# Entry
Amino acid sequence: MGNNLTNKDLATRGAVLTKTKSKTKLPPMYKVLLLNDDYTPMDFVVMILEKFFNKNNSEAIEITMTVHRKGIGLCGIYSYEVAETKVEQVMEFASQHEYPLQCIMEKE
Ligand code: TYC
# Structure
C-alpha cells in the first residue's frame, strides 16, 4: 500500500511485464432472422414466432409487422446448434405449407 510501482516504473527498471488474460471464451451467438416475401400470410408468420420462438401473441405480431415493413426481423439469439435447429424447423414448416418464407442465421 502506497508503495505500488506503475508499469512505467517497472519498465524503467527493465522488469519484464506480464499480462494475464482470461482464456475462457464465451461461445459465439447467432441471430435468427425472418425475411419478408409477398406470399406468406401474416397469421402464418405470427404462428411460427409463437410456436418456434416462444413469443406471446403481441410480440409475434410486432415482429411480423417489422419484417413486413422493413424486410427483415429478429426472432431471437441462440448458440450455433439451437439457431441451426430453429432455422431448419421454420424452413421445413414453411415448405410443408408451400410458403416461400425464408429464415436465416447470422453470427452476432
Ligand atoms: N409480406 C407478407 C404479406 O403481406 C407478410 C410477411 C410477414 C411475410 C413476415 C413474411 O417474414 C414475413 N402477406
